[in-house]
Amino acid sequence: MTMHRLIRKIFRLLCLLMIAALLYSVWLRDVVPPTWHASLDPISFGIISVFTVWVALWLYRIRFRYRDLTMEKVDDMDGFEFERFIAYVLKRNGFRHVKVTQESGDQGVDIIATKDKVKYGVQCKRYNGFVGNHAVQEVWSGKEYYQLDDAIVLTNSEFSDSAQELAGELGVTLIDRDRLRKMIKRLPG
């Protein structure tokens, strides 16, 4: 069992215990014998406290996980981490219904997102060199496959001249390192 699945199971159990603790605190405390209060009161308080702290830490992690992120740290991400990071950046830049597609066999679209009622397919390329035509071709075919309205190739690098020319012909939007840096500035700091 992976750590992620174990944490989810523990959280589900904690949610059930939280419901039971709230039921006891709000309605059942007057029903149970007073001799049980000495045991059940601290137990329910402890469960409610642990649940509250867990949720607060989870929300903090979600909100500030990329706090003070530099482009050098982005350059060090692996491909899948970069895709998840870009999904977060898109959400913080006004995109809705952001979904990372499967990690392999994604038909050239890593992320599907909506903004202003337009469905976008996003191809993420974490590169050290220039991103070429292949990325533009992949996202274009993925756009057709998923029946999307527009296509974007987003990179932490730069695009080759031929990729820029092809993207212009096909109507694919290119987001390079400088534009990505501007999008990252909108993250909570």
From TrEMBL:
The keyword DNA repair does not apply. The chain crosses the membrane at residues 44-62. SUPFAM superfamilies: Restriction endonuclease-like (SSF52980). GO terms for molecular function: endonuclease activity. It comes from Lacticaseibacillus pabuli. Pfam families: Mrr_cat. It comes from the Bacteria. The lineage of its organism: Bacteria, Bacillati, Bacillota, Bacilli, Lactobacillales. InterPro entries: Restrct_endonuc-II-like, Restrct_endonuc_IV_Mrr, tRNA_endonuc-like_dom_sf, Type_IV_Methyl-Rstrct_Enzyme. This is Restriction endonuclease. PANTHER family: MRR RESTRICTION SYSTEM PROTEIN, SLL1429 PROTEIN. Residues 75-184 form the Restriction endonuclease type IV Mrr domain. Keywords: Endonuclease, Hydrolase, Membrane, Nuclease, Transmembrane, Transmembrane helix.
